[in-house]
Design a protein that fits this description.
Blueprint lengths: L1 H55 L3 E5 L10 E7 L2 E15 L4 E7 L7 E6 L7 H10 L3 E11 L2 E10 L1 H4 L14 E3 L1 E2 L2 E2 L11 H16 L23 H6 L1 H19 L8
Parallel strand pairs: 3-6
Antiparallel strand pairs: 1-2, 2-3, 4-5, 5-8, 6-7, 7-8, 9-10
Length: 278
Amino acid sequence: MGCSLAKGNSLKKQFFDSVVMFNRHYRAEMANREYKKYTIKAKRAIKGEAYFESLISDYSIPHHVSGPKDVGIDYFCEWVFGDMPTGVLFAVQIKTFSEDNISKKYMGVAKKFNGLSKYRIANSLLKISEKTLEYWKGLAIPIFLFVVTVKTKTNGESLNCYYKRYTPTLSSNKKLKGDEFYEGFFKVNRNNTFLAFKDPVNRTQGFARDLFIDYIRWNYYKGSIAYLNPRHIGLNQFPEDNIFPEFFDQYKGQILETYAKTQSYLVALTKGINKPKT
């Protein structure tokens, strides 16, 4: 009987040892798979950021935001025309996907606006959190979500770049819902050329047009009708000095508030009240 008991205990030990060994191998295998998934994702993200930089570097100075904390911005960029920085800043978040992991639909050409091909691009990772949107809004500069897609071919890979404007949404206090996050993407490359201007000879439309409009939107949102001469950023579109009635009407509350405060201060200043110290 003692022998049978010892044999039974030995079998139990073998069984439990096998279970422990299996769990160890399983955890190691799962950790290895997760590491591989992370590595593939990291490589793809690096590739997307490098492609974005290579495209936009002819027209902007991109400053990469790096660090352990994800603030929802990958680049702060300064627009450059010719050899001169313009002081016009914009912020960019980049998402990189394999073509197999997105749903993409061509929606025509925005002929009256930027002249670029418009797409609907769907992936759940393109939904931006409310916290990030609030952070973007607080920056009060043009914000763009760029999507880089990677397609594997027999002779290598092909990459394409699209962007979505977030200024019209943020500056109007609109809340995006559901599929609205997937709409309004514009293809901004032709092979390895960035479409800063849809017509590069006359320098009209393209990304520069949207950057200009969004810059003006934020000025109006902040209560200022200060106008950026579009020639300053190389855009031969819109007058050199102008007021946009549509934007004035949309942001008239902020503009009137600024005007009232300025008028009140000037009246007080002429009377010697609250005269600023020099």
